[in-house]
């Protein structure tokens, strides 16, 4: 459920007016933050905490919690013991861990790390697309066998219509056209791709035509590479299912750097084994780490990366400071859920 900004503005203003001492902000030691960039607010004291351990007793009166890779036990402990908590700043683009921990979001504002992972995820996505087109993964397999993959070298057809071999003139459809897509698109365009987007609302974003999801049946058959950057929520579960996979051309590749739940993995496996699509490159999975018995390990033309696209929040200090200023001023927070 989305929070009501007006409710939080009223709650924050009421809380600030009643405050008689410094507020505590707890920041995680799970990444290297330049705390000097956050210091300087006379009404706020900063305290590090271990995201894998219970909150120290001396800090259970904290009102602000910054999270990054917290364990589920740590977050459940915070739910039960941080009774004065008013705001959680997650550094994850999709704070599913925070939302599923049980915080009362009618009393605790939750803001996301949207924007902190745009460049790293965009770069990784570009790498997966180039890997798929140039078949570096197959070259590596032959190298490990001490064999020369002659069929992948020498004279090659230029931009064959029945294969995905280059980003030049490739029809790339980005499903989930947000900040990451906007960061990725210029690189694709520079390499000659024809980029279109899909989102809940249609329009033109950064010069790219973005269609609503009801146009997928028309767009998927015209796609060489489908890039999925969907969030993980009930509305996106198995968004790419067997029916939609059948709409893709036989040579099309699927790249997923959003959330693993957005793809029906059994349907994808069947499409790969039956050669109904060209291949897939997945950075996210329904269960992580990917279980050893999973069929996906041995699926043909499948590139797996271990949720490696993000994991490096960039500009976290600036986001914390911006939202801290807004919080203290009783203004609407950035990236408020």
Task: Offer a few descriptive terms.
NAD(P)-bd_dom_sf; 29% helix; 10 helices; 5-stranded parallel beta sheet; 17% strand; alpha/beta; 2 domains; 337 residues; Rossmann fold
Write up what this structure looks like:
- The protein contains 10 helices and 13 strands.
- A hairpin with a 2-residue loop joins strand 8 (about 205) and strand 9 (about 210).
- The chain is α/β, with parallel strands linked by helices and about 325 residues long.
- Helix 4 (about 120-135) crosses helix 6 (about 180-190).
- The protein has helices at about 5-20, 70-80, 95-100, 120-135, 135-145, 180-190, 215-220, 240-245, 265-275, 315-330, and strands spanning about 25-30, 45-50, 65, 85-90, 110, 170-175, 195-200, 205, 210, 225-230, 255, 280, 300-305.
- The termini are close together.
- The chain has 2 domains: about 25-115 and about 315-330, Rossmann fold; about 115-305, NAD(P)-binding Rossmann-like Domain (Rossmann fold), CATH 3.40.50.720.
- It has an 8-stranded mixed β-sheet with strand order 8-9-7-6-10-11-12-13, covered by helices on one side. A 5-stranded parallel β-sheet has the order 2-1-3-4-5, with helices on one face.
- About 30% of the residues lie in helices and about 15% in strands.
- GO terms for molecular function: glyoxylate reductase (NADPH) activity; hydroxypyruvate reductase [NAD(P)H] activity; NAD binding.
- It comes from Neurospora crassa (strain ATCC 24698 / 74-OR23-1A / CBS 708.71 / DSM 1257 / FGSC 987).
- Keywords: NAD, Oxidoreductase.
């Amino acid at each position: 459920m989305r929070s009501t900004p007006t409710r939080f503005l009223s709650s924050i203003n009421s809380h600030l007016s009643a405050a008689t001492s410094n507020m505590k902000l707890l920041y995680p030691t799970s990444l290297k933050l330049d705390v000097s960039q956050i210091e300087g607010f006379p009404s706020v004291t900063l305290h590090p905490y271990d995201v894998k351990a219970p909150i120290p007793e001396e800090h259970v009166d904290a009102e602000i919690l910054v999270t990054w890779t917290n364990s589920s036990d740590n977050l459940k402990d915070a739910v039960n013991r941080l009774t004065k908590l008013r705001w959680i700043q997650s550094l994850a683009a999709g704070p599913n861990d925070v939302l599923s921990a049980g915080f009362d979001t009618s009393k605790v504002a939750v803001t996301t790390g949207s924007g902190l992972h745009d460049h790293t995820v965009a770069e990784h996505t570009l790498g997966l697309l180039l890997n798929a087109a140039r078949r570096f993964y197959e070259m590596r397999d032959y190298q490990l066998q001490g064999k020369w993959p002659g069929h992948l070298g020498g004279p090659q057809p230029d931009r064959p219509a029945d294969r995905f071999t280059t980003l030049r003139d490739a029809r790339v459809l980005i499903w989930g056209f947000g900040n990451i897509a906007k960061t990725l698109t210029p690189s694709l365009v520079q390499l000659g791709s024809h980029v279109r987007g899909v989102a809940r609302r249609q329009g033109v974003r950064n010069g790219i035509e973005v269609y609503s999801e009801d146009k997928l049946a028309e767009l998927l058959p015209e796609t060489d590479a489908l890039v999925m950057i969907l969030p993980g929520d009930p509305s996106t579960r198995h968004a790419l299912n067997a029916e939609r996979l059948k709409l893709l051309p036989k040579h099309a590749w699927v790249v997923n750097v959003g959330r693993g739940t957005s793809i029906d993995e059994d349907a994808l496996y069947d499409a790969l084994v039956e050669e109904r699509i060209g291949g897939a490159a997945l950075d996210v999975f329904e269960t992580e780490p990917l279980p050893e018995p999973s069929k996906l390990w041995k699926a043909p033309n499948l590139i797996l990366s271990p949720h490696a696209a993000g994991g490096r929040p960039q500009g976290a200090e600036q986001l914390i400071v911006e939202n801290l200023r807004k919080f203290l001023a009783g203004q609407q927070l950035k990236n408020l859920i």
